[in-house]
Amino acid sequence: MKKIPAAVLSLFLLPFLFLYSGSLQAQTTEDSVKAVVNNLFTAMKTANGPALVEAFADSAILQTIAQNKNGEKYIRNEQVKSFASSISALKSGDADERISFETIKIDADLALVWTPYKFYYKGNFSHCGVNSFHLVRLNGKWKIQYLIDTRRKAPCEP
Hints:
CATH architecture: Roll
Number of domains: 1
Mean pLDDT: 88
Distance between the termini: 57 Å
Low-confidence stretches: 13-26
Shape: globular
Number of helices: 3
Radius of gyration: 21 Å
């Protein structure tokens, strides 16, 4: 069997390595954005308030599109520390938000993530909706700057 010279082999492999490294970089950025969102929901499920706070930027805004008793829509604001405190008061497994990544858009240090979800409280279905995240890359780390969600009992996709 003939041995292929290294120079010839590298001529064939170099274009593939170049293409692979380009796709690897794009995939890594998306994966790092997804990781922050997944870490948030892991922190919720494990009732880990400090880990939850770590997912957010210091000036983060949390909002929910809510409905009052008269059926009127309004925006409810919540502080990250309040949210983390309420999650920390739960038992591990009580808050289980199951998401799917529908849309991720990234430009430089800004990312937009759209995640439909179903929320289960103590094992029972509670509500569903969509989360809309804006993340920013600060000092090399992605952080959630803005989160707004919808909440409803139905219709929810299976």
